[in-house]
Amino acid sequence: DLKWDLVTSENMYCLAIPSRSDLFTIRDIRRKHLPMLKKMRDKCLATIKEEFDIPASQIRVYFHYQPAYYHLHLHFAHIRYMAGSPFIGKSIALSDVIQNVELKSEYYRDATLVYYIKDGHALSRELDKHGAIARY
Questions:
Q1: Active site residue 64
Q2: Which is catalytic among the residues 33, 64, 73, 75?
């Protein structure tokens, strides 16, 4: 991703995109996909350590929901990196996804997932028309 200069470790930000095209968001993840996700996590963390000397303990691994684009992808960011929306209401930790899907294969198919959008966003305006937005 072009957000990182490949030099400043605190700005490390990478994406991992599986080659399979049948997974669009975390809602598509089932128990049968966990080996692939674990392999992606392990290989990416090892590569980041090998290439950039950043240990796994310094890396946040997460999905966005809703994603910016609909092809499943994982975010890897240094724990000090604050861009890329690694926050509550936008991101879901890979470790949480794995744990939830281990408990129930269709967890994310069935779960109510809260996410935040800005007032004035096209989706916000459309949902507002139907009274589907909770304002806090």
A1: no
A2: 73
